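Late entry, written up from scratch paper. The run itself happened at the end of the previous shift, but nothing got recorded in the book at the time, so transcribing now.
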Amino acid sequence: MRTILNIIWLVFGGIWLAALYFMAGIIAFIPIITIPFGVASLRMARYVLWPYGKAVVPRPDAGAASAIGNVLWFVLAGWWLAIGHVVTAIMQSLTIIGIIDAIVNLKMIPVTCFPFGKRIVDRDSLRPGERPLHSI
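Output as recorded:
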């Protein structure tokens, strides 16, 4: 079932969202100081391309650097990408099949705005006792 949902997602919005994340990542690689933002953006592009079966879990070793990175990320790219998710969710909700994908799109916004200090893992590979922030 995950594969079918991922294919529907890919066709009806995932490819466009992944392209936005990929472009943001490439732009972030231009200045050397923002390479961590590029890595986070490419990690999110992979997540947005094939989201079903994934979970977002907090990193226990995240500290002040993650918090500062999240603030900078939100100002520079996060809110633009969140707008992309909202617009895509609105377009997806116009069809009955797309309503599920629209909900998934809206669930991704917190990770889009604040990606540092989080890991994206397969839902099947969660460690014992590890609680996801959300899973799709």
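The CA atoms of residues 71 and 114 lie 8 Å apart.
(Scratch paper discarded after transcription.)
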